[in-house]
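Okay, can you check this protein?
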Amino acid sequence: MANNEKNTQTMTLIDAVDALSTIAHLDLDYENAHHLNMVESEINESRVFTPYSESGDVNLVVVKTIFKTILNHLKNLYTNDSSYITDENKNERIKTIMILVGEVAKKLDTLTGLFHHAQDKSVHELKEFKQLQEFYINRVARKIDEGMLGKWILGISARQLPTTESQPSNLPQQKVIHTKHVFIDLEGVKKDSEYELFFIRKEDGTRFFNPRLVRSIKLVCDFGSYFKGGRMDDPFADVYLILDRSLHISAKNMLSSLNPVISRFYHEAATHRKNEIVLIMNKAIIALMLAANTKNLLRNQPIKSCSEYFYDYQIFLRQALQTREYQRLVAYPEQKSSVFNSCVMDTLHALCYSLYTSKPGIQDLGLFIENIIHEAAQDQSVEHSEAAIQSKQLWNRLGCDYSAMSKLIKRHPSGHLKKILEMVENGNYKNFDPLFQHNTPKELYHVYCENLQMTNIRMAAPVYQEYIQKVELADEFKGFLRALNANQKNSKFLMFNYQDRTSWREHARAKSLEELQHQPEFSKNLTVVTLAKDTEFYNQDSPYNVENHAEVFIRNLKDHLSDENAGFYFPSGMYKKSLKEFITNAIDTVHSLFFQSKNVLSREQRQDFIEIVYFFLELKVIDLVKPDLFSFSCKDGVDIAGASNATFFSFLKILNQEKLSESDMEFLNLMIYGIPVTIRERLMLQDRFNRMLSVIKVFEVAKSEMGSVIFAKMIKEAFILLYETPILSSKLIVSSTPEV
């Protein structure tokens, strides 16, 4: 003890940080270690400053000295070296230290032995801690950019993936990927662009993350919550209540549509009550009924909420679909001839169909989002708010709203990071399965074209993935497809898949979906088209970023659209028979109408060019397939698919009406903000939003310069011979939630 008191008089910053790290690391290890001696052996290494006294308690003198040492260091920086404000390395070191301070203070408060003989009963009450906290917040933190997070991970860094050497070419070469030394990188965690890798194993069974990364996320979450205000200041704090009500309304609507099927099931199953599949299906239906019960809404503080009962429903539904009896009936269709077997199959498939086509509580979620946008606007200048409201340009209003929301979301500290942390701490990271992460499909809007009615479904990739190289299709999705084929209806489902088939992260998922449509059982009901929305060419990154000549760009675009190695996939025969000529004509028309046949196109113009061509290509595929239902899908249906849905909706509206109505704007906001906020507790990724905003601006500017009537006339005259149906004149009707 005396030795420690002597040594603290000469404690350096390095010693202080080392001691902080030891304490923080010790508590984490205590939670995970199976034997106490495993932890003791780690902390009793030879150190100048051990945070423990001879009695085994944390040395309070050392703790106080640590805080004093750090405070003196910050004061010295503040007085003599202002470079920490602009020097990113110094900036990040300060934040890392303060993260450790916050974590250690929180952890030490749980060690009762520390304060046996102390006047203060909490580290947060120590004079030294309060002085350090006050100086950091009032003097240092306010000068540091709030948007810059610390580089907390030691030992993990982004590594350049090895590729085979190849000669320059207009088309991408096949990459050889090795994931053995690949880990989730810090930027991906902050951006939330690769969170699925927390759920997936590498080929050898190891993880893409290690405990240090999880600990760093925990430090940041605790630090952010401590310094950024409490729940009362968080406008997104009640988002879980909205999600709970949304699932409640979905359950009610599902039950309403399933009433005849469920009644028939209970009638036929009366004499088969002990049958395994009947027991499981009964549990599923009861769970759905409980999810639809208003008394179980979270706002009523039930023992178990609607969202939890809905999760139970999903579990029982999957169990029923995985029973041997169901698998036998699928494998031997002739056995469905019995009334009971037929009833079981019809009921299960109807349950799957209703899961994928349920009508959500759009009104509640829409109202929540509009209130949030209104609150965000209050923090903007009067001029900014008025410009957003009075703007006649859709792109300008969307941009103003996103700017305001970006500021407001800062009051919701580390929302998506907390979701990752909660998942890891609870052990719910065994596989990537969007359906079981409250990412349930929803019916959004209808497209009417002559006698065709096509329903848009918002959905994530219907997959179950435990290993990076192996993917299983969700049983519920297969049941949904079988429901489309029930009673000889032969309804068609078209999926636009935006997962990157050229990337090791998404290749297996894209491939599994593309191959599913070739299975005889699903070939009549499923069409999957993959469009590249995350490749070097799509983003016009190197080597395409320096090529401004329109002729070269157009040639490359045509070449890419015909090559699976470039990230595109069309069902066999579709490209050669119908799309090749269309693509050539569409590209030339887009170049003429939207870019005045310019010989030179900037990088941003080339990106907009690609988006517009995609829109007309998507319409052409819909025109060919004539689906009953269709979806724009990426891994989770949040960012890439969300922006695509909003762009598609906006373009058709701009083509067919003078101005979007307020209800149209509310629905756009629902797609842009409601889905990311409820599923990932963040905004749509900024690069996806900016790409969407830019192309909407191009569309609106062209319409404004030509005039509404001439613009619509020129578009339809240019494309009228390229489509079989008048799809450019389609009407969009937003799905409404029926009264139940």
Q: What stands out?
A: The beta strands are 442-449, 452-458, 463-467, 470-473, 493-497, 526-530, 629-633, 731-734. The first strand starts at residue 442 and ends at 449. The CA atoms of residues 273 and 279 lie 7 Å apart.
